[in-house]
Amino acid sequence: MKIINISSIALAVLAGGFFACKPDNAGKSGGSELAGDAAQKVYVAPGKHDEFYNIVSGGFNGQLSVVGLPSGRVLRIIPVFSQFAENGWGYSEETKPMLNTSHGFVPWDDSHHVALSTTNGEHDGKWAFINGNNTPRIARVSLSTFRTDEIIEIPNSGGNHSSPFITANSEYAVAGTRFSVPPDANADVSINSFKQNFKGYISFISIDKTTGRMGIKFQLKTPGVSFDLARAGKGKSDGWFFFSCYNTEQANSLLEVNASQKDKDFILAVNWKKAEQYLAQGKGKKEAAKFAHNVYDEKTHSATSTIINEVMTLDPKECPDMLYFMPCPKSPHGCDVDPTGSYIVGSGKLAAVIPVFSFDKIQQAIAAKTFDGSFDGIPVLKYEAVLHGEVKKPGLGPLHTEFDGQGNAITSFFVSSELVKWNLQSLEVLDRVPTYYSVGHLSIPGGPTSKPHGKYVIAYNKITKDRYLPTGPELTQSAQLYDISGEKMKLLLDFPTIGEPHYAEAIPASLVEKNSRKIFKLEENNHPYVAKGEKEAKVVRKGNEVHVYMTSIRSHFTPDNIEGVKMGDDVYFHVTNLEQDWDVPHGFAVRGANNAEILIMPGETCTLKWKPSRVGVTPIYCTDFCSALHQEMQGYVRVSPAGSKIPLSWGTGKNPTAEAEQKVAKR
Ligand code: K7E
Ligand code: CUA
């Protein structure tokens, strides 16, 4: 009884503090902060392009969206971890392997963080990386095709939240496990044995410079805590990585209370160059693990999934001087590194200050062994010794910080619903603006890089209440765009988002648009079922499989009449789009297909599997309005009873049955 009382008081205190969200001047149509020339600043005239691509996580929809800034116009949804019936992602035979995991086919995930590739700490416009939290995965998306090219599963991990964050030269993307877990190879242990058996694994995923190909280079077996967010060092701190950790209490139940006990949790500083040295010295151990690695090949237009059965691990106990804990008040969420790499900003969700750590001081403290004891064998650096200073009374519930490249930082405050700008040197608060409401992440174009592009900050809000037309119990989540070019931040625009945007990055259009892919070359199409011209179109029976090598071009399919399919057959429509013009996809759908349509890009081959459910003639059609005669782009498939003698026949512009019957008669 007593215990319950204490818990509920603690809960009430925490919940009360944590869920208040409206700023003082809430309810006004946007506050006095709305810039007078806001409309002009976000207006992108018809036919004109936006200045930035905003690559936005879809949260629980497992996708990415691409938004133009400053207009807020949605340009594309890129399916990543979730099936997408709009274009057949995860439904087409070619893309199904992309969603394979060690748990089998997993067609959904929860995505939080986007990371754009960098070279020398600056955006290079090549790839976007994004995490799947639930079934731990990292995906790589091409910024040339705007498609998911690769997905790698992370073993020894649960709730892949501290992920993916990348090093300055995109050598690695890291993934820190949110849930500490027992090693996959020996996981049947008592939950109560958390402190002995559970580990907080951090994975270093290598990225090939030219192809982008990922691989798990090694995992660090760190103490059982919860990793929340991370950033790589850059400039002077290149070679280091910083991870915020909570639940240093190592609780395994009622974390809301039990993981909020300590005054300070930690930021883990990882010397990853040192880890590489230990690896080269042979300190790594291969451990059994099981994870999928899925790669999409642009030439075969098909994905393959490979299951890998071991992973290289490094035990910090055998690798001294590689890891250090820094105390950080209290339950830190964001952990951000400024453009010069000199400062590491921790954001304690339950803290009243923002601690700013100095990389130089961290190095000095390590050299002088200014420790404050150790945690599970890892030295804890003395808080005061590594602190650059604290931002006092910044707001309530700091979550994330980005940088404007002018020596300032902007931090989001979930509880007090505001963005607060402060100076990195003086730690003085310079400006604050309300957000509507409960801002989570924020993004400055180039904010996490060595060279922020500045100009705007975008707040990604969790709650919108009265800001939009109501749509029933579920309201849109939203982004708010602020001008940060002047001394004061000025609200310019609200725009709704797709799913829950946790993090997003923005990149100048000039770095991306020139590389945008227009078509896939037909002569380079190595799909095993390609038909490179109408003459190659055919229908082939292999037992009860019927393979249709179909072509599409404005405005017909070849073949568009097919007979001889029987009940019990599995019909594979392999559709090649013969077009070699930009922006001319064709779609394909067949009545009764219980999966999706497919949308085939110029030069590509895509396969829809269909199992007929009844005898009769079934229409097929193109689903994408491709020409004035799109509505004529249709055909029929005749399905006869199992055991029927109707021969397999096909054609376009002729009567396939009559021809087939003639052939049969001649024999
Ligand atoms: Cu939304 Cu980055 Cu998952 Cu903070 S996290 S808000
Ligand atoms: Cu092809 Cu419509």
UniProtKB/TrEMBL annotation:
The keyword Hydrolase does not apply. InterPro entries: Copper_CuA, Cupredoxin, N2O_reductase_N, Nitrous_oxide_Rdtase_Sec-dep, Nos_propeller, NosZ/Cyto_c_oxidase_sub2, WD40/YVTN_repeat-like_dom_sf. Keywords: Copper, Metal-binding, Oxidoreductase, Signal. PANTHER family: CYTOCHROME C OXIDASE SUBUNIT II, NITROUS-OXIDE REDUCTASE. This is Sec-dependent nitrous-oxide reductase. GO terms for cellular component: cell envelope. Coiled coil: none annotated. The keyword Oxidoreductase applies. One of its GO terms (molecular function) is copper ion binding. Its main location: other. It comes from Runella aurantiaca. Residues 1-20 form the signal peptide. Residues 648-667 are annotated as: Disordered. Its EC number is 1.7.2.4. NCBIfam families: nitrous_NosZ_Gp. SUPFAM superfamilies: Cupredoxins (SSF49503), Nitrous oxide reductase, N-terminal domain (SSF50974). It is found in: Cell envelope.
